[in-house]
Amino acid sequence: MPFIAFIDPPSVGPGPGLTVFTIFFGERIGSTAAPSGAPLAARQEFDSYLPLEDFGGVNPAVETWEGKSLGAGLDSTSSTHSGYPVSGTALVSWMADTSGGNFDNGDKIGFYDSPFGGRYNTTAGGAWYLECALPLILQPEDPFDNFGLYLTDIGDFGSQMRIELRDTDGVTTTYTLAHASNAGNTLHFWGFIDPTGKKYNRIRIRPTGTPDGGGTRFDDFFGIDDVVLGRAFD
Ligand SMILES: [Ca+2]
Ligand SMILES: [Ca+2]
């Protein structure tokens, strides 16, 4: 039985009733310390709106990657997102978007347990995080209505990160993160909750700008950690 990383659900939920699609966002610049300030506040507010009793009592499901030494140079994580789905049978894989070619093996998904180049772990008491220089795709088998994550080291090469969210009708909406440009040692939280009953089945995270050589590879390595994935409003 592999070790499964899991963070206890927040004790502050559920918060006030949410009635519309809502985005939660916070930025901190100039530190690689544990989450604090605006990103932490955004995360806590996000958590406060998620009911705890749904989804088998495990909601939100938080992927910390602690205890999952998955290596580097991966096309896909092929990893079960801890607690999602509740059946535990379906994989929730992160995929590196290699569709544009023109990348090195090191641009693919990598897992690391120590800070490097502005990317770092955000899990309390943890060490592991994921990084990539290619767009990242999350396409779980079960549709979801809430998602959130910490991002590290985004935008330091002038690009603007955006998140493309596809609903189960096949409509993709793009959200551009309102972050500072060319700033170092950054931490951001981005998340959304949709309480309207609408569900989503794909997320693609990528910088905007001109890829190197016209492929999908950007100069902007970025890290992600403490990824929330949930279905709370069936
Ligand atoms: Ca972690
Ligand atoms: Ca970067």
Q: Strand share of the residues? A: 25-35%
Compute the number of strand runs: 13
* The top level CATH class name: Mainly Beta
The CATH architecture name reads Sandwich
Radius of gyration: 16 Å
Question: What gap, in angstroms, lies between the N and C termini?
Answer: 31 Å
Total individual domains: 1
Shape: globular
**Helical amount:** under 10%
Mean pLDDT rating: 82
Distinct small-molecule ligands in the complex: calcium ion
Which residue ranges are poorly predicted, with pLDDT under 50 across at least 5 consecutive positions? 1-15, 53-58
Largest pleated sheet = 8 strands, antiparallel
Alpha-beta classification: mainly beta
Indicate the CATH topology.
Answer: Jelly Rolls
Description:
This protein has 234 residues and is mainly β. The protein has a single domain (22-230), classed as Sandwich (Jelly Rolls). The chain contains one helix and 13 strands; from the N terminus they run βαββββββββββββ. Strands 1, 2, 3, 5, 6, 8, 11 and 13 form an eight-stranded antiparallel β-sheet that branches. Strands 4-7-12-9-10 form a five-stranded antiparallel β-sheet, with no helix packed on it. Strand 9 (161-167) and strand 10 (172-176) form a beta hairpin. Residues 1-15 and 53-58 have low confidence and may be disordered. Bound molecules: calcium ion (2 copies). The site of one calcium ion has 7 residues, from loops.
